[in-house]
Write a structure and sequence with these properties.
This protein is mostly beta strands. The protein is built from 4 helices and 43 strands. The strands form 7 sheets. It has a 22-stranded antiparallel beta barrel. It has a 6-stranded mixed beta sheet with strand order 9-12-17-18-15-16. It has a 4-stranded antiparallel beta sheet with strand order 5-2-1-8, with no helix packed on it.
Length: 804
């Protein structure tokens, strides 16, 4: 199914006139809710396939079915024949509302690869600032999933670029920390993929970019459907199984410098009511710096079955594993001397991720749809090495091992019902109600492991873990609702509520050591038992409104409350570089945004927003008084205010609409002023919030034709700080200090030939800039983590398909 079909705000009637003559043909017409005929909609039955003409009419031989209807402007429909079909049979299918949005969506996606989500889609309401990244249309380094290119057109995002192979993704928006996208509710096909949604919401797993149809980012009041996170929702959507063939095989093979090799292989198909797909990805390389070898494998299997035209079930299994050697961080002086050097050669990182999900979709009536998704995760991550300060040499001997195991289960149900406030109302409003139950258990062990330099993730004495041994059980029940009202032809109003019941616990022990300051000998040790449970009941609300300023544009305002619980697993990790405030507490806040987006003319698109984000009791890093250590604590209340602006213009088609060559130039600009407005420590007031780059500018040019495209883009980030005192000079251990401004350029090209072959090539960091985006307090550092230098790659893709 073409992904754009799932995003169109369209409601249409499909009328089939069944001929009982000798021909046994189905004859019909496809129209939208304005009674306009729909040209170019595919209709398929068995091996036969046809397309509607300019009057929306079609004719196709079909004795048994099922009949499959699909296209760029509609959701795919599977119509199951039960042997008896009335001479006149009408099937009504509704996807989204607001017909005007259909035209906007269709025009924009024909030329550009980014847009916004329609207000109603499936069992989802999307309002306020939201973004839809059409990854299938994008160029760039897809095998290594370069985040600069992937998120180039999303304003306000700060990205950590310490992983050049795209194994882990660090993204934060509007002044939020990019650390493993922990401030987003991170999902795949609508279900959780982070380590522990409550106690440890970091994402060690990122789906292959080559497998994706799109990425949804939803912020504002609509994000309360998914969780309490300040950043909102980030949902990775896997491509749907191919609808036009019983078997299709696609293989993508990429090579690059630093020994990089990546292969992605996918099979997919549809046969009758049954659809399936599966893919396997392998990435391996030596890395930009010494001691950076990595091997990653990912696999995904999906099977779906249409019980009838109103009910479908899908089962999905995801598997990911990787082993990476970590070169550690650098001090400021070491980075200036040679950013490629490494002074750690015994550090390793290992991740295993397993996710099982079951979907059930049902159309309860013409106006009501139901979705139930159940999911479970059994995963682990292990870090092994020397965690000492980077300005001290690795003394050898025993290494430190942190072992985390994650066992999570959850189920979420949603019902969306459409209705009209009055019979004369043009657009249907929608009411969404849902509930979620989640149960997780994180186990975190930290102790001494074997010496040597091999990747042996075994404790020296499993019966006596030296540093800490903790379990973090959690339980969550959430109920949520959202309503969107279309008032007249121009006004849209929405309001949402979410109620969270959260129970999180910590059970275990940690050892506290008294170390001699000169000899570093252990003078005494204390085993401290710890058992703690915190129960919270949190109501959150949000509301918004939009007004159509033109046929293809609208202004909007949005407000949303947010909340983030303290993560016990973060608190109880022993780290020689930082200490944790024993009185640390939860964070809370809200986001307000005002914006305007839409088309000026036919080929000029603009999205402009102004926002404020209040962050209460924000957790951050600051120097501990009278100590060389840093303390993680509630720094104080922060206020992030900013302006986001995105503009894209097709300057060739704007002047020559019939041109076979298209182009687009885009500018993505954001200014964020994030400061602490109150704090127990007066010296923090007025200081800039950590990891906020006040000015971020990305701009690019793409030229494309039917079979090829070339694009070049540049990314600029102004300087940012890593601690609440805004230290400019790097500390001796390089954990805190300024991150200087940087500018990076990327070039890519793609050419498709003989329909089934595609060649891609590109250069990331074209100017070979030397820069970094992160100072790590622990793994994979500590210290400065240099970003990759110039990287060259080439990809060959080919597709084999069995015709019906």
């Amino acid at each position: 199914m073409d992904f754009t079909s799932r995003k169109i705000t369209l409601s249409f009637l499909f009328s089939i006139l069944v001929s009982l003559s000798w021909s046994q043909n189905f004859e019909g017409t496809i129209i939208d809710q304005t009674k306009s005929p729909q040209f170019g909609i595919f209709v398929q039955c068995g091996e036969k396939k046809t397309m509607t003409d300019e009057q929306g009419k079609f004719q196709i031989p079909c004795d048994k079915g099922p009949l499959i209807i699909y296209g760029d402007q509609i959701d795919t429909l599977i119509y199951v024949l039960n042997g008896i079909v009335a001479p006149k049979h009408t099937i009504e299918v509704q996807t989204s509302e607001a017909v005007e949005e259909v035209e906007i969506r269709g025009k924009r996606l024909h030329y550009f690869d980014i847009g916004f989500i329609p207000p109603i889609k499936g069992v989802q309401i999307a309002t306020g600032t939201n973004t839809l990244i059409e990854t299938e249309r994008q160029g760039g380094a897809k095998s290594s999933a370069n985040p600069r290119e992937l998120f180039a057109k999303v304003p306000g995002l700060n990205i950590w670029e310490s992983d050049g192979a795209g194994i882990q993704m660090g993204v934060g928006g509007r002044g939020l920390s990019p650390n493993r996208a922990a401030n987003f509710n991170t999902r795949q096909n609508g279900y959780d993929i982070s380590a522990d949604a409550l106690g440890y919401p970091e994402s060690y797993y990122t789906p292959p970019l080559e497998a994706l149809q799109a990425i949804e980012i939803i912020r504002g009041s609509a994000s309360l459907q998914y969780g309490t996170q300040f950043g909102g929702l980030m949902n990775f959507i896997i491509k749907d199984p191919v609808q036009t063939s019983p078997f299709q095989f696609t293989s993508r093979n990429t090579i690059g410098n630093y020994g990089y090799f990546g292969t992605f292989n996918r099979i997919s198909g549809t046969s009758g009511r049954f659809e399936y797909q599966g893919y396997y990805q392998l990435k391996t390389g030596n890395g930009y710096r010494p001691n950076s070898d990595f091997t990653q494998q990912q696999g995904f299997v999906q099977v779906g079955y249409h019980l009838n035209e109103n009910n479908q079930i899908r089962l999905e299994y995801t598997r990911m594993s990787y082993l990476a050697k970590q070169p550690g961080g650098l001090t400021d002086k070491q980075f200036e001397e040679d950013p490629k050097q490494s002074i750690r050669d015994r550090n390793w990182f290992k991740v295993d991720w397993n996710i099982l999900a079951l979907h059930f979709d049902s159309r309860l009536s013409k106006k009501t749809v139901l979705n139930i998704r159940a999911f479970g995760m059994l995963s682990s991550r292990y870090s092994l090495g020397y965690l000492g300060k980077i300005n001290t040499a690795d003394p050898g001997g025993k290494r430190d091992l942190i072992a985390g195991d994650f066992k999570n289960t959850g189920v979420e149900a949603r019902v969306l019902h459409r209705y009209k406030l009055t019979k004369k109302q043009k657009h249907e409003s929608a009411f969404l109600v849902g509930a979620r139950y989640y149960r997780g258990q994180t186990t975190n062990l930290q102790g001494l492991a074997t010496d040597g330099d091999r990747a042996e993730f075994k404790f020296n004495d499993p019966s006596n873990i030296e540093n800490s041994d903790f379990r973090f059980p959690s339980e969550n029940f959430a109920a949520f609702t959202d309503n969107i009202w279309f008032l007249g032809d121009r006004w849209t109003v929405n309001a949402g509520l979410r109620f969270e019941f959260i129970k999180s616990s910590a059970i275990g022990y940690y050892n506290q050591y008294n170390i001699h300051p000169l000899t570093f000998d252990t003078l005494s040790a204390y085993k401290i038992e710890n058992s703690n449970t915190v129960i919270r009941s949190i109501p959150l609300g949000g509301a918004g409104a939009s007004f159509k300023t033109g046929k293809y544009s609208n202004a909007y305002i949005n407000f949303c409350q947010n909340y983030r619980a303290v993560n016990f697993s973060d608190i109880r990790v022993a780290n020689p570089n930082i200490v944790v405030d024993s009185l640390i507490k939860d964070e809370y806040g809200n986001t307000t945004e005002i914006g305007w987006r839409g088309f000026i003319g036919k080929y000029f698109y603009t999205d402009l927003a102004v926002f404020t984000l209040f962050y209460g009791d924000k957790i951050g890093l600051a120097p501990e008084p009278n100590s060389t250590k840093k303390i993680r604590t509630n720094i104080g209340n922060a206020l992030n205010t900013g302006v986001e602006c995105f503009v894209e213009f097709d300057f060739i088609k704007a002047f020559v609409d019939s041109s076979r060559i298209g182009s687009s130039i885009f500018v993505n600009f954001s200014y964020i002023n994030a400061t602490y407005i109150s704090s127990r420590e007066k010296s923090y007031v007025g200081k800039q919030v950590e990891y906020v780059s006040p000015i971020m500018l990305k701009s690019g040019l793409k030229v494309r034709a039917k079979n090829w495209q070339v694009q070049i883009q540049g990314s600029y980030n102004s300087a940012q700080f890593t601690d609440a005192t805004n230290s400019k000079e790097g500390s001796g251990d390089a954990v805190i200090g300024e991150i200087p401004a940087y500018f990076v350029m990327d070039l890519s090209a793609r050419y498709t030939f003989r329909k089934y072959f595609q060649l891609e090539a590109g250069v990331n960091n074209l100017l070979n800039s030397s820069y970094y985006t992160r100072r790590a307090t622990a793994y994979p550092g500590p210290g400065i983590l240099p970003s990759d230098g110039i990287t060259i790659y080439g990809t060959l893709q080919f597709t084999i398909e069995v015709k019906r």
